[in-house]
Amino acid sequence: MLVLCLEHGPRRFNELRVPLRSISPKVLSETQRAMERDGLVIRDAYDEQPPRAGVRVRNPGGSPGRRGSCWPP
């Protein structure tokens, strides 16, 4: 479900919580970290105040064959 939400571009953690509200923040964070560790997603940190980071799919063309939707597009 996380990969489907990242299909249209990078998202911040709180932007992912809206469409994935059935997943607790703890589980979402753990899943995101595991996927980053496995090389499926990339976390981009921006040098801003306040600190900001986004997550994106490593290889957007390699997304799953099954298409789903994640609001907002």
Order of helices and strands: HHHEE
The helix count comes to 3
Strand content: 15-25%
**Mean pLDDT metric:** 81
Task: Please name the defining characteristics of this protein.
alpha+beta, 3 helices, two-stranded antiparallel sheet, single chain, 73 residues
Helices and strands in order:
Layout: H1 2-5, H2 13-17, H3 25-37, E1 41-46, E2 52-57
Antiparallel strand pairs: 1-2
Structure characterization notes:
This protein has helices at 2-5, 13-17, 25-37; strands spanning 41-46, 52-57. It is α+β, with helices and mostly antiparallel strands and 73 residues long. The relative contact order is 0.27. The protein is built from three helices and two strands, in the order αααββ. β1 and β2 (52-57) form a beta hairpin. Strands 1-2 form a two-stranded antiparallel sheet.
Quick structural overview:
The chain contains three helices and two strands; from the N terminus they run H-H-H-E-E. The chain has 73 residues and is of the alpha+beta class.
